[in-house]
Input
Amino acid sequence: MKKAKVFDAVTIILLLILAVLIYCVIQLKVLHKPYINLFGHTVFQVITGSMEDTIKINDVVIVKITKDVNVNDIITYEDSGNYVTHRVIRQTADELVTKGDANNAEDDPIKIDRVVGKVVFILTNVSVWINVFKTPKVIIAIIISIILLSILFKKKM
Output
């Protein structure tokens, strides 16, 4: 009986993860949002070395969606359809000046309304897993595995 409870908990957790993934795909592919919004947070993968050594290429940043940022915060903002993650070095009433930690020059000033939010966490070495879970074949295989394991354990019980 104890094994059934453990399996049920694992199944519930996996189904919750699957539900979150489906929710994210719907936001991006169906609703055509530029980034996901999951409980007021979003994620971006860093593709340049402009924030080295703080943030490395292929690190993933978790961004709290907010316009409330201060000098020295690392923020993500929209710039001509791209998303840039740099540190705020100066702030006026309606503009911010940012700069990548590894860059020599400041960025052009941006309006605060272009800010997506503030980086609250940096995940290193997860880009491989993200690329794996972006593959539809992998997601389908996970769903089928969950269903088959569920059937198998229910028959054994």
Observations:
- The chain has a mean pLDDT of 85.
- The longest helix spans residues 2-30.
- DSSP finds three helices and seven strands in the chain.
